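> call design_seq(struct)
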């Protein structure tokens, strides 16, 4: 199993039984293996201030999705696109109120808060991301679907990043509107 971190790739050798359990648990939780391993690895770590560490991982996932698409692996590209959207929502929640989202229900609920704060277009971006999650598991979408989704999710990521990493950086968490 290879685990990709921003700017660094590491290969971790695990017993087959452990790797299979990780894959099984990721599927059970409706997560990609990468998303699940990232969640496990960071569970006991404090995210970097204001969610910036999440944004770095999100950018890396978008790049991985583009690379998978270039190689023709639509399913993996779809999974990484979903993972980028989910982590963008997690980054926003951490930046906004120091809250760690741990379930799909948390993500859906927090997406609604983002809609209210950022704009209704968040709903469409999230729906597209969710379709990529389904595509990862069912394999029904095509290259064009993932390309369009990548554009929308990149917009979502860009918006989250612009709020988390404002120009002149010293800005702290924003107070609730």
């Amino acid at each position: 199993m290879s685990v990709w971190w921003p700017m660094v790739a590491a290969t971790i050798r695990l017993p087959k039984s452990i790797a299979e359990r990780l894959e099984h648990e990721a599927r059970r939780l409706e997560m990609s293996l990468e998303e699940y391993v990232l969640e496990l690895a960071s569970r006991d770590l404090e995210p970097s201030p204001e969610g910036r560490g999440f944004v770095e991982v999100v950018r890396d996932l978008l790049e991985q999705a583009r690379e998978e698409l270039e190689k023709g692996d639509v399913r993996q590209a779809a999974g990484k696109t979903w993972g980028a959207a989910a982590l963008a929502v997690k980054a926003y929640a951490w930046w906004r109120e120091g809250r760690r989202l741990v379930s799909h229900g948390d993500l859906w609920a927090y997406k609604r808060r983002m809609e209210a704060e950022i704009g209704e277009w968040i709903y469409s971006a999230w729906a597209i991301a969710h379709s990529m999650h389904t595509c990862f598991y069912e394999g029904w979408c095509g290259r064009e679907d993932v390309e369009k989704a990548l554009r929308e999710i990149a917009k979502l990521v860009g918006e989250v990043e612009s709020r988390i990493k404002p120009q002149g950086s010293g800005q702290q968490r924003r107070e609730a509107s």
